[in-house]
Amino acid sequence: HNCMxxxxxxxxxxxxxxxxxxxxxxxxxxxAFMFESRYVIQPTVAALESPYxxxxxxxCWQELKRNFTP
Length: 70
Fold this sequence. Notes:
Layout: H1 11-19, H2 45-48
């Protein structure tokens, strides 16, 4: 993730992580990794025009409810 891009858990992940009992959970058949940097990453034109670009990436946060007030 770029340091200037907001990111975090999806709405369902946040809901279960803040309400389920604290116990180890094994997630089968999954693999995820990401790179995070303090630097601003600028994608190439080829990356932005790639058919593999996940254009709906931010949609997973649409159902997040506000849980904190400043």
